[in-house]
Structures are given as structure tokens and as C-alpha cells.
């Protein structure tokens, strides 16, 4: 019998380029649930316990916020990305 393991993207995010590529791909989909889950994967790759502490949230609350069914506030998204060393940039769409 073949043994299987649950695949977790967080274990495969190794570099800043990985993070940027993953976020850009999620943003292209224009799907909030996917975007929050991707940010959650990135946060897990960095260590949720410390990030939650720095955001003054419980670890469980941070996990829930960035799950596929989570709905974090914009402020939480911006603060988390800032802690991870990223910012949101707005640029004009090219038609």
C-alpha cells in the first residue's frame, strides 16, 4: 500500500522570489479566498506563532483569518505583509 502525505505549499516557499511569484499568481486570479489562503501559506512558511504575537492576535485567529474561508480586514493583510517584508503597490493597468 502506498503511503500519501498532505501537501502543504508553506513547506515549499524558500525565497523572496517564491513569495512574490506566488502572490502575483494569486492576484491574477482575482479571487479573495485564494489570495487569503496564499498569504496564509506564506505566513506559515515564516512561522505563525511569532507573526501572531507581533500582530497581537492569537495564533488560531491568524490561521482562521488566512484560511480559504477566512476574511481578514485590509488592515490585518497590510500589517502581516509589512511584517513579512512586503508592501502593496498600486499601478495603472495597461489596456
How does the SSE layout of this entry go?
Layout: H1 16-28, H2 32-46, H3 48-55, H4 59-65, H5 74-84
Helix pairs in contact: 1-2, 2-5, 3-4
- Globally, the shape reads globular
Gyration radius, rounded: 14 Å
Mean pLDDT: 92
**What is the domain tally?**
1
- Gap between N and C termini: 53 Å
Helix and strand pattern: HHHHH
Poorly predicted regions are none
Q: How many β-strands, per DSSP?
A: 0
Percentage beta strand: under 5%
- Relative helix content: 55-70%
Q: Which structural class should the secondary elements be placed in? A: mainly alpha
DSSP helical segment count: 5
Structural overview:
With 95 residues, the protein is an all-alpha fold. The chain has one domain. It contains five helices and no strands. The protein is globular. The relative contact order is 0.14. The mean pLDDT is 92.
Search tags:
single chain, 95 residues, mainly alpha, 57% helix, globular
Give a concise summary.
Helices cover 57% and strands 0% of the residues. The protein has 5 helices and no strands. The longest helix has 15 residues, at 32-46.
